[in-house]
Amino acid sequence: MATRQTSAPRRPPAYLDLVEVDSRPPTQRPEDVHRTPLVNRLRASDAPLVTVCAPAGYGKTTLLAQWAARAGRACAWVTLDDGHNDPRVLFASLAGALGRPSPGSRPSALLAAERPVVLVLDDVHLLRSRGSLALVATLARHVPEGSTIALAGRSIRLGIARARAAGRLFELGADELAFSHREAELLLRTLGAEAELRTIRRRMEGWPAGTVLAALALDRTSAAGGSGADTFVADYFELECIAGLAAQDVRFLMRTAVLDRFSAPLCDHVLRTGDAGGRLDAFARGSLFVVPLDRERRWFRYHTAFREYLVGELRRREPRALPGLYRRAAAWCESVGDLAAATRYAHAAGDVDHVARLVTRDGARSSTKGSSVGEPWLEWFDDVEVLRRQVGVAVLGAWTHLLQGRPAAALRWRDAAASAAAERPEATGEDSPESLVAVLDAAMCAGGVERMRADAQRAVEGVARLSPWRPVALLLRGVAEHLGEDGGTEETLYEAAEAAEAAGATETRIAALAELALDAAARGDDARAEQLVLEARSLVARQREPSDVSTALTLAGSARVHLRGDATHARADLERAETLAPLLTHALPWYAVQTNLELARVHLALADPAAAQAALDRAAAVLRRRPRLGTLAEDVASAQDEVRRLGERRDAGRSGLTTAELRLMPLLTTHLSFREIAEQLSVSRNTVKTQAISVYRKLNVSSRSEAIAYARGLGLVEPAPREEFTHSG
Fold this sequence. Notes:
By secondary structure, this protein is mainly α. Strands 2-3-4-1-5 form a 5-stranded parallel sheet, with helices on both faces. It has a 3-stranded antiparallel sheet with strand order 6-8-7. The longest helix is centred in the C-terminal third of the chain and has 18 residues, at 632-649. It is globular and about 100 Å long.
């Protein structure tokens, strides 16, 4: 019988001897910023799998080294390179870092259950081979209790969705790794660049490496007497991001960097390609400083510093490409209705005519803060000679300055428009230049109400029926008629409101409804006035920018209406209207006086003579510059008398009615006793009694019935019913 021979021990494969393993974490440097909050989050997590994924320079290695030093467990560290795409080399590195188990061990046995350990695989984005990725995936699925695998890199190709769903994953990305304001401040103070904190924060967006490099570049520039260039960040991008890319990818990045934000269709149109979607997805997943702007990854932007670098490279390599790129971007954005972006790109392309067409496309609607274009174009065209060639722009600019309370600038642009109209009287679109200048003259009301009425009539006759300026012209004519000696009718204002609604000119419609409300109140139709104010207020609520000056009169009127029952709403609208007071200048004198009058009436209703006087002082200042405003001067004088009478009735030092007291006022007019009122308000009877006494004191009255009569006079409560209230409370 043959004797069974014992086999000799298996010799480890030769490649295991060729792998040099350094399993120690990188040495921490004194100048490293301590990421204590992030380290504490890592220490507190019991997830077996950690991923730290961000672009180059976000301090992934530094963070994990700081964590390893405080993890309270043994740490094995493997810094990966291209050679680890050979699964045998990767296995050997892992085996060496973890203590060299027997060569025949399965990958899942690399981590010992009896010895908790933190295994860090750094630069995991360099793994591309299926075998190596499968090896790491196997490790990640078989982490013993108490151990943790941390994967750090610019991208992670492993499927981690199951671990995320099972709660076995702790993730950190660029947003978490970005320096906080405090961290950046401490670092820049150390580097002597604290004075540039705001600029560096804006450009670097918390990017750690960029923050350091920008500060060092500033120091170098200062040492060179200001002649040095900020090349450190550019060199970093060149080495870490661009060097390994194909030429067509670099060209794509540079050319799309002219865009503030971008989508695949926009990029394809601008670059005349058809593969932008795939490229953008690859760049975003590869952490190439491409930032998704939505969950669907349809819109993106570049990191600010990366975009600066790319645009700089484009200017250096392909300067002649820029105008065409901008023109195509402007055309695409205009086609999808993004007029603000289209205007910016047309301006960058130097296409003055295109900018002018975009700016004036919506007429008066383009002048408000919430418009689709905005105000940067005011600076672009602020030259008399340029304006004389662009009468439509000159008119719109003057109108915008009027709405912003800038009378001197408005007059300068108006004069440029008048000069252009005199030189080229042909129609701008379907509107005659003279009629557009007449709109401005009517609004400025420099010659008094009668002249305003004549200018507005000339404007109505000269603009096209479907012109976006027609609702404005009708509004101005209606206001002039209302302020004139004969009082006019409401017909023109209703026509203005209807024309504004048809044209989608919400701001003009709001103003027309507010003017109609004033007209109804002047005729004693309080119910109709309230209805119109509330209709206008509902339109304000739907505006994207509800603090435009065109809403001031409506907000003041709404505050006055809501004093009767909703004091909180009333005070909120009053405060918003008051914030617009600086815009109420003699640029639009009639509107400024009307709004300040309405504000004064609200403050009077609140028994606050000081605030009412402040509003009347503003109105009086406008009247001194524009004295011929029809009936408004008499209205201001009448309100001044009311302020004087209120001041005589109460001590000047007493404050106005509080929100709680305003809430109480309507209930005082009922037959309810103080106890019944307390039940409705969910307060005690003593609270109601205390508030009532406070009201009596502030209004300088001695009884409930006197307080009610006075409040009705101020409009705080509804007019008296047929049966007079006689309850003594």
